Amino acid sequence: MQASYLNSTSKNDPSRGSYSWGLNSQIKSVTLRVVLLSYAPVVALLCLSGCTSERSDLSETIALSPDASHGAPISTSNDVSILSEEVACVINSYEFHIHCVDRVNGNTTVIGGEGRGPGEFAAPPGIGRGRDGHVVAMDIGEDRLTFFSPNGTLVSETRLPQSFSPTSLRDDRLYGFELVMPDFETEFLPSYVPMEVDVSSGEVLWKRTDLGDAVDRNCFNPAVGVSTPGGGLVFQVCEYELAFFSHKDAPTATVVVSPSYVEALPNERDLAAHMDVMLSLRSLAGPITESEEDAIAAEFLAKPKEWLLKPSTFSFDSQNRLWVATTRDRDAFSYFDIWTDTTYVGAVRVKDRLMGFDIFESTLVTLVERAPDKDDIAERAIDWYDLGEIDWSR
Questions:
Q1: CATH number, domain at 249?
Q2: Which of 34, 152, 188, 305 has fewest C-beta within 10 Å?
Q3: What range defines the domain where residue 120 resides?
Q4: Left if phi > 0, otherwise alpha if psi is -120 to 50, otherwise beta: which for 171?
Q5: What is the pLDDT of residues 15-36, one digit of tens each?
Q6: How many angstroms separate the CA atoms of 176 and 165, rounded?
Q7: Is residue 356 part of a domain?
C-alpha cells in the first residue's frame, strides 16, 4: 500500500516522503510522556464483563458558532488556557514561549523562553489559570510551576515533586499523576498514580493507588482523569465509559456510558497526527523504510479510534457541568459530551479539528486546526464561544 498522509504541522519534507517533524532533542522526553499518556490504555482495550451497555445516537446536538477567532502558532503542544473572558494563552513549543492573545484585537503577549533560569522553561510547558488571573506555566522538565502576570512579569515559582505530571489546575490545587517508570525486567509499561499538589508549597495533598480496585474494571485508565469542583474524581473506563467518584476518598465509583458513542475508524487527519508521533519515535532507532511506514499506517487505520480526545479531555463550566472532548468527526467539526454529575446532558458541536480547550465562567475557548490548504498545511487558531447563549433546558 502506498499511502498519502496530510502533514498538519509543517510542509512536506522530500527527504522523508510525506512527513516532517520539528522535535528537537530537548523536548523528546516531554513528547515521550505525552505519548505514554495518550497510549496508556493500549494494554487494556479489551473490556471484560459489565463493560458494555446499550448506546443510542444523538437525536439533537447544540451547534455553536465562534464570536471571535485569532491565529495561533504552529506547535506540538495542544494546551490552551483562558485567563479571562478576553485573553487566552497557548504554547509555541518550537520557541518555548507562551502566547497570550487578546480576544478583541488579537494582540499577543509573549512570555518565557528556553532555558533553566527564572521565567524560562527547560521544556515546552503546560499552562493554566491561577486564582489571581496569573499565567501558570507547568514545566515538567524542571519540576517547577512559574507564575506570571498577564503582561508577562515573573511573579513567583513553586517546586513540584519529581515524576509528577500535572494535568489540570483549579484555584490552589494542581491535579495530575505520578509517572512510575517500569523496571523493564518484570514490568514493561509505566504506572500512573493520581495525586493532587498544593500550588503554593508543592506539598502532596493526596494520592491514591487503589482506584483500579475501586472501579473494578481491567480497562480502568488512571492516566485520563480530573478532579471535580466538589472534590470528587472522574476517570475514563474502557473506551466510552466514565467512572465518577463522589469524593477523592470514595471507596466505589459510579460507572456510566456515553450515549453519543459511535464506533468510527480514523480519518485522514487522525492518520497524519498518528504518523507524525510514531515516525518521530521510530526514527530514533534509525531510518524507516517506506514499507514500514505503510505497515504502521495500515495497522492504525484498521482499528476504531479512541472515543475520548487525549490529553485534553476534561473541563468544567461555571455550573460545574463536565465537558468531555471526544474524537467524533474531528475534522470539519468537533464534539463534546456534557454531563451534570452522572447525568448525561447532551452534545455540543464546535468548528474545525479540536486540539485543546478551556472554559472560564461563560466563555469556551478552543484551540483548533483549520482545514488543510493546498499545501496540506493546517493553520492553528483560537476560537471563542459564548456559552451564555446555550439553552440547556432542551
A1: 2.120.10.30
A2: 188
A3: 39-264+304-389
A4: left
A5: 333 222 233 333 333 333 333 3
A6: 6
A7: yes
